[in-house]
Amino acid sequence: xxxxxxxxxxxxxxxxxxxxxxxxxxxxxxxxxxxxxxxxxxxxxxxxxxxxxxxxxxxxxxxxxxxxxxxxxxxxxxxxxxxxxxxxxxxxxxxxxxxxxxxxxxxxxxxxxxxxxxxxxxxxxxxxxxxxxxxxxxxxxxxxxxxxxxxxxxxxxxxxxxxxxxxxxxxxxxxxxxxxxxxxxxxxxxxxxxxxxxxxxxxxxxxxxxxxxxxxxxxxxxxxxxxxxxxxxxxxxxxxxxxxxx
Amino acid sequence: xxxxxxxxxxxxxxxxxxxxxxxxxxxxxxxxxxxxxxxxxxxxxxxxxxxxxxxxxxxxxxxxxxxxxxxxxxxxxxxxxxxxxxxxxxxxxxxxxxxxxxxxxxxxxxxxxxxxxxxxxxxxxxxxxxxxxxxxxxxxxxxxxxxxxxxxxxxxxxxxxxxxxxxxxxxxxxxxxxxxxxxxxxxxxxxxxxxxxxxxxxxxxxxxxxxxxxxxxxxxxxxxxxxxxxxxxxxxxxxxxxxxxx
DNA sequence: CCTGTGTTTTTTGTATACATAAGAGTATAA
DNA sequence: TTATACTCTTATGTATACAAAAAACACAGG
Lengths: 246, 246
Fold this sequence. Notes:
mainly alpha; 3 strands; 73% helix; DNA-binding
């Protein structure tokens, strides 16, 4: 079909973009740990390209805040402090509420339908152990609300803020006890948007993010505690790359 | 003084960053027009560096959305549609209000003092024709509010959003009729924050941004009308670089 | 055992080289 | 005149080369 032809036509991706997406994923998934150095030659060999695309990808990661440059030293994976996360969540809370209120006014019937399905799918999955799918559906749910705002800038910013905590998402979704509450919250949000009730939508989304916030912060603290225990016990911590940077 | 030593120590800036800032300024000030191509060799010669730093700077501009890449064709300066600007202003309005409310709670006496001075300085300048200084003071006023939020992520996003319209700022500040109103608005905002009155602060900032919005949109429409008149009259429009891109 | 110094290695920052795609221009044929 | 094929130019995309800074190391001296 012509769709395929189009796909082939758009198939061209500069190496720098491939590298960018690869590194980005690796950082957000935690495969590259905070503090770990990104050495150009090493990455170039590993990915089978020259330093040039690597460097250009790093420039983008730099602007996105996923890596930090140390002059004449190169890039290291940015570490997120608890303060950073609180800041991100504070902004995200405001913008998620904004998006929800806008969705109340602007959502289309098709998107409303999609929102419903996403909610239902979450409900179906909530008692399974398929955390990856669960995370995807959760993303989908919010994506629909974003799309309903018809504000591309808002969507971009919200996606970016959300991705900042991607590393912790799976972590806290493993707390199965919260699934029921998440499900309820989704339903409340859906209902509020369906009715066009901005006040309820705002309140529900606020609660939703607050709960997420608490869960993520708890997960982080748990995670850090484990890390400390590990390094305390055996000095030669399992991995070299785990080193925090100054 | 030791401040100077420190300055010298931090004096090192990779060429890519110099180029980045240079190009960025040029775009935001309108020296590089929307649709204009950024050709690497040309820029390299002009700035006296090789293509490498130019390319790395372009990668950052790309992520920031200030340029758009066309595959195997290079970068062109992104053009802002009216919809884009409305989107930006919509998000900015929400976040400026958020910042104002946070400032009500968290502002320190020193920052409050700075806010007062910035307001007063604006008042002093408002009847002069020094639009550049006026713009700077206006920036300063908002910067103080941002600083008071103690939320670095919010500050970064707000700065970015504000810069998106930098190209139009001088334009609309030339409308001297609005200066008195701007001055009043600044005072209202200052007073609300001083009192810690979130409701008033929110309302005042909302009005402030709404007015700015109207002024900027008016300036753009005026600007575009002029452009059209120009190109309509003499087919060979004065500049090659003015060409819009597809 | 620690400390300071000179040397080597590694890695970045920048420049340049080379292959290829896209576009412009040109000549030729209908 | 218009269309088409062919060349030629230009600019990008990627790889490589080279200089210089920083880190790692070794070694002499206290």
